[in-house]
Design a protein that fits this description.
Blueprint lengths: L1 H5 L1 H18 L5 H18 L3 H22 L2 E2 L5 E2 L8 H25 L5 H19 L5 H19 L2 H35 L1
Length: 203
């Protein structure tokens, strides 16, 4: 019981983080509310554990949570003039090149900042997961299916990072998140195929 009392912030962050990912798989707009709550709580958790890049990432998550809520709530007109929800999409070659370049630049810059201006014990790993998370979160706001692939990589690497830093409740979260990311990719891929088939039938 004392352990739960001492770690209630991290445990609550884990619970709301799980709710966020499950609702995002279902493309439920309420995922953003739980994501924002989880990010606020993880600000403290990562600061206390000296995982500074992931701590700063939580600020970005809050901002993108607001943006994602607004973007998902927006209804676009289709060819028939009806209002439709934001559809699942795939990366275009141009988007792939731009996002790859931006992610690599972020990776190098964040790593150098952590090395020279903080006492982070894991600057390169912290920078790797942080830069990819920046990209994946933006892709989620646009419902780009490949963001799930990035999350599978980030979540798997984060398991090792959090074990090293002793964040055991978060290890449980990220094991589950890795599994859910695989499920999310499968679910969104089914949705994309259904949309693609419907679009082709209308042409």
């Amino acid at each position: 019981m004392n352990w739960f009392i001492q770690n209630w912030i991290e445990i609550t962050a884990v619970a709301t983080g799980l709710a966020y990912i499950i609702l995002s798989i279902k493309q439920n707009i309420w995922c953003w509310i739980f994501g924002i709550i989880s990010s606020f709580l993880y600000l403290y958790v990562f600061f206390d554990s000296k995982i500074y890049a992931d701590m700063s990432l939580q600020v970005y998550y809050v901002v993108m949570g607001v943006y994602g809520w607004i973007h998902w709530a927006r209804l676009d007109s289709n060819n028939s003039g009806e209002k439709t929800e934001l559809p699942v999409s795939r990366l275009t070659p141009k988007q792939w090149l731009i996002l790859s370049a931006v992610t690599f630049i972020l990776f190098v810059l964040i790593a150098q900042f952590l090395i020279y201006f903080t006492d982070s014990p894991v600057p390169w790993v912290d920078s790797f997961t942080t830069s990819l998370s920046f990209t994946a979160t933006w892709m989620l706001t646009r419902k780009i299916i490949e963001h799930w692939i990035i999350w599978i990589i980030v979540d798997a690497v984060s398991i090792g990072l959090y074990y090293y830093r002793g964040l055991y409740p978060s290890i449980i979260l990220f094991v589950v998140l890795t599994i859910l990311a695989v499920a999310g990719y499968i679910e969104w891929n089914k949705e994309w195929k259904k949309q693609h088939k419907l679009t082709k039938s209308l042409l």
